[in-house]
Model the fold of this input.
Amino acid sequence: MAIIPINLQDGSLAKAADVIVGIDLGTTNSLVAYMKDGQPYCVKSADGKNALVPSVVHFAADRSVVVGDAAKAKLVSDPANTIYSVKRLMGKSYRDVAGLQGFFGYKILDDDTESLVKIRVNDRYFTPIELSADILRELKRRIETELGQPVNKAVITVPAYFNDNQRQATRDAGKLAGLDVLRIVNEPTAAALAYGIGLDPAQTETIAVYDLGGGTFDISILQIQEGIFEVLATNGDTFLGGDDFDQVVIGLFANQLGLSDADLATDKSLGQEIRLAAESAKKTLSGADEFSGSVGGKPVRITRAEFEKGIEPLVRRTLNCCANALRDAKIGTEKIDKVVLVGGSTRVPLVKNSVAGLFGKSPFDDLDPDEVVALGAAIQADILAGNRKDLLLLDITPLSLGIETVGGLMDTIIPRNSKVPGRAGRQYTTSVDGQKNLKIAVYQGERDLVQHNRKLGEFILHGIPPMPAGLPKIDIQFIINADGILTVRAKELRSGVAQEIDIRPTYGISEEDMARMLLDSIAHASEDMRIRGLLEARNEANNLLHAGDKFLQQNDTILSEVEKATTKSLLSALKSATETEDKDLIHRAIEDLNAYTSPLAHRAMDTTIREAMRGKKV
Ligand code: AMP
Done:
């Protein structure tokens, strides 16, 4: 089944294809592109100069939200309320990013190391999905102004290494911004499409996409066969990019001015001035042999040779990543047919020449390296819209497939528009001590609560050996075959007990029904997100209440009376918070409880270890 041509304004099945836009939702900058007269274009700012929208969100004291250049301007003056690099947090738990708090100028919340990160702004808590939705709304607004018509469908790009959680988070952000996300496309795939690579189904080739942006470096090796892109290997460095080149220049300038790091840290405006001068010098050196300017009224200068000497170790690091990717893909550079450059920092001549040297061929660099991913996303969108009759549309799943999890939430396992045949899986665990059976209820649809989706069937996994909650590992696999039959298989991995059912998801549902379900999901996205946020906060709180009671019981002799009483009162405050509809209140109560009890927990642990060691020879 092809993409359903649904008109999201009134829910009717559209006859003519709507505009589908391509969006590059980047770490530093984002862009939106669309097809005009058969060619992809990036939407520019009102002055017609810049297509880049900084991926920065600022919250003002009056709770108003701004995105883009205006928000970026607040990075220095109001860092606690200015959120950048949120893409680094998409689909991540606090544990995944625990080492990174120092990188962010705003507060990432660590109330539960296993659950997804939240960002605290004043007394409110946001998920990376909500913040990404703010950026997407701004892009949607831009393109709607440009086209003078509503835009509701998009293709969004993500790095090739994004896992299922990160991809699902990106889809959810789109939905929240009022966009029907037809497909999530890998950034290197989009970059290749922008150069027309992969559009000829008869051609088989292997390509390398070298993407050096402001803060991240990615190298992807792709194989393209019959129009299908397969990622052979990815490598990179999530903290390496043009910002590091700026640092090199800042160092040189500071030397010339006789300034130390401490001088720059204390005088923020001087620090900012030298940073801007350094970036401008770097950009100038992409086209000239030397740069001279001034900082704080004093002259600074740098030649291209000095710059290249300074950044050479950084460029070498990217080449090492390329070598690692090739090794993982088990191919030599001679097997790479084409090399594509992506990211603003590939404008640096040393970068371009080094890449050409490594692969032994001139890379594709005619298109603007900042725009190339968005342009390719627009081409992918055009293909999905059915405007390219020469290309085959693959069979896809028309609606998402998933299971019910705690609190009646829908957990999508195979997102809609996934290729058929296909498979995907995820691991779950139990929520009650000694739980022996687990009900697996399978649903179809796009809403966050299963009660609003279509139930396809359910079964019970019997015979899980009794274990404490959280210990069993239950693997659930969704396998959809070429005939569209879905097999749902559940297996407890420690004991091997297993159970499965077969379902035909498209049986008994019309295209109109599916269109209505899609429409409802967009119309209710904000409300659904609110309820999901509340239910997740409650689940987290309930786990913590359970753990807190256990902690008090087990450490009765270690804790003082005051500590016990304070912990109890924080627990009861959390309990009352869970009875409200206010997720921010629940998060605050969780944060207060954690802040108070974590030193106690450390002490209790130390005491227990000491007790255990006593009298033992070590
Ligand atoms: P991106 O994340 O792809 O938008 O890349 C932005 C990075 O490219 C920033 O570090 C910019 O300073 C850098 N950049 C933009 N233009 C140039 C240029 N002409 N020469 C060197 N670096 C540039």
About this structure: The mean pLDDT is 90.
